[in-house]
Amino acid sequence: MSPSIAQVSVKGQLTIPKDVRTVLSISTGDDVLFEERHGEVVIRKITNTDETWSRSIQATLCEWEDGLDDDL
């Protein structure tokens, strides 16, 4: 795959170039993850395994939603 460029819109949105969508098998409605690694951002498609992991992690973070430590 050759390098691709996308321009960020006024709303902070960008279109993932077609060749990138093809390589990552990204379709309408798919979720993607943007992850910082050593000063660069990596984009990848979230798979079913990732969704399961996300739900399990989210369940452990419920204490962040209670607001008890907001004033600390």
Brief description of this entry?
By secondary structure, the chain is an alpha+beta fold. 28% of the residues lie in helices and 17% in strands.
Q: Give the H and E element order.
A: HEEH
- Name the quaternary structure: single chain
Helix content: 25-40%
Largest sheet at a glance? Answer: 2 strands, antiparallel
Rounded to an integer in angstroms, the radius of gyration calculated over CA atoms is 17 Å
Mind explaining what this structure looks like?
With 72 residues, this protein is an alpha+beta fold. The chain has helices at residues 18-24, 48-60, and strands spanning 32-37, 40-45. Helix content is 28%, strand content 17%. A two-stranded antiparallel ribbon has the order 1-2. A hairpin with a 2-residue loop joins strand 1 and strand 2 (40-45). The relative contact order is 0.11. The model has no long low-confidence stretch (mean pLDDT 82).
Descriptive labels:
72 residues, alpha+beta, two-stranded antiparallel sheet, 2 helices
Q: Can you lay out the helices and strands and say which pair or pack?
A:
Elements: H1 18-24, E1 32-37, E2 40-45, H2 48-60
Antiparallel strand pairs: 1-2
